[in-house]
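Reply to dn_fold:

You asked what the input looked like. This is it:
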Amino acid sequence: MKRRITALALTALLVLGLTACGGKKADGTTIKVGATPAPHAAILEVAKEILAEQGYTLDIVEYDDYVTPNTSLEDGSLDANYFQHITYMNEFNAEHGTHMVSVANIHYEPFGLYAGKTAALTDLADGAQIAVPNDGTNEARALLLLEQEGLIKLKEGVGLSATKSDVAENPHDYEIIELAADQLPSRLQDVDMAVINGNYAIDAGLKVSDAVAVEAATGEAAEAYVNVLAVKEGSESSAGIQALVKALQSDTVKTFIEDTYDGAVVPLF
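and this is what came back:
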């Protein structure tokens, strides 16, 4: 009988131990976040140290595209993602029926127009090739930068929905080449110029200070293109997510961004 009681006691302890281990995971002490490498994953590495002091483990999963981090968030593979601006997130929700919400504004990345085969705007020849991102709002944003510099004129009022077909005036017949955003840095020398997303420019070693033109850092641009921490609707108030928000909006992270990116990444908190 004593032996049986001992066995039952050991079984109970084992069950309690397994429950405790499972409970730790359920408590949200591990936060799995998807990000593109630069600057998002690098910024998250700073937040990771802050979270570790609070008992949280930040698991950073890097992606090199703009789709998988969102589908992975939707299917529950990720707890959050940090790679996209608010306008792209909203358009992705509308197009794919996903349920992402922003829980924090983190930073803004000005778009740059970078020189490829042609070094200066004044040297652009008629018919020159200018590459732009081919995805939704990022293409519109690139076209607006070209309009800002007087290279083209868009149809009135198209704004963030602009596509190549909305170019109303192109007096020098520039050829606008649509490419996947992550291909733009590697194809830069194949075209005369390219408008490149901030994170891919950073990853390729391009400096915004070297761009031939930079998106004006107006209030409207910063609002439309603020990079956000996104979660699936319903998890906004979880303790782990709120801890991550505080870490990303800390003075430590702000100082890191300002000291590291030299204006290519601008904190908005």
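Residues 1-27 have pLDDT under 50 and may be disordered.
Hope that clears it up.
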